[in-house]
Write a structure and sequence with these properties.
This protein has a five-stranded parallel beta sheet with strand order 2-3-4-1-5, with helices on one face. By secondary structure, the protein is α/β, with parallel strands linked by helices. The chain contains eleven helices and five strands.
């Protein structure tokens, strides 16, 4: 996580936390995930620990199911007035499960005239206990009435990510571990990938690699084409029947789709192992 975003958490501890932030970034979804981690830490009633099992707060934030967190994305080409009205109605009461009511707006340059005017009073006269984050690829495209009321950060990420061939190698090794080591615990399953510092896009490519691998195994079992040499470490799976691979393909495609909706990656990995071994 960048020092810029860490400064938000630092401001919280120093009691200088602003009510609204404008964050210019080259990867809004990545930034959103980092913001969720900060919101977990800010709202934690205890000493925050990653992947803590003491309460359900972090999971609700990560999956965007916490009632006091609203993530707003453009509805079509613009952010509509109705979306802002929903925000104002939702945060007209104090939060029950967290310290703050929180909202994150992606592509904040896409407010139209009506939605921007509806938002203006909300951020001009903020109630205590509300935090807002406006994300954009270019802060110069943000209307002045929003920009002037926000603390502004620039938060950029390296764009290289993990190479495709590395992700394919991880996918092969992961499947070998899952299918052979039947005593592998769910926690080990998580650590095998989370220690590689994957970002969301890397996990999407990881699931796509698994789909590709299962498809090649399926084609070999069906005598359509032989398994490519690069997948030879998984040749032991060819003793499975075609129905098994069709089931796995359906499972992984469902997990890939859920990841697109910002479901917690740990839960998806757990589900993959449990349903694969059922």
């Amino acid at each position: 996580m960048s020092n810029q975003l860490e400064n938000i958490y630092k401001s919280y501890h120093e009691n200088h936390l602003s009510h609204a932030f404008l964050i210019e970034t080259n990867d809004q979804e990545h930034c959103l995930e980092d913001l969720k981690k900060i919101l977990c830490r800010i709202n934690c009633e205890q000493d925050y620990v990653d992947y803590c099992q003491k309460c359900n707060l972090c999971h609700l934030i990560q999956t965007e199911q916490l009632p006091s967190l609203l993530v707003i994305r453009p509805d079509g080409m613009t952010i509509k007035k109705d979306q802002v009205l929903e925000l104002k109605q939702k945060f007209s009461t104090k939060p029950l499960f967290s310290k703050y009511n929180m909202y994150v707006v992606l592509n904040s340059e896409r407010f139209n005239f009506s939605s921007a005017n509806t938002l203006l009073k909300f951020i001009e006269e903020p109630e205590v206990g509300i935090l807002g984050f406006f994300l954009t690829n270019n802060k110069e495209n943000i209307i002045d009435t929003i920009k002037s009321r926000c603390q502004i950060f620039s938060n950029f990420y390296e764009e290289s990510g993990v190479a495709d061939e590395c992700i394919l190698s991880f996918a092969i090794a992961y499947l070998k571990k899952v299918h052979i080591s039947h005593d592998l615990s769910v926690l080990d399953n998580r650590e095998f990938l989370t220690r590689e510092n994957f970002v969301k896009e890397d996990y999407l490519r990881f699931f796509q690699c698994i789909i590709q691998i299962y498809y090649f195994l399926y084609k070999d079992v069906m005598n359509l084409s032989p398994l490519p040499e690069e997948y030879s470490d998984l040749r032991f799976l060819l003793k499975k029947d075609a129905a098994f691979f069709l089931k796995q393909l359906k499972l992984v495609e469902a997990l890939e789709q859920e990841l697109g909706y910002n479901v917690n990656i740990n839960l998806l990995l757990d589900r993959f192992v449990l349903e694969t071994r059922s």
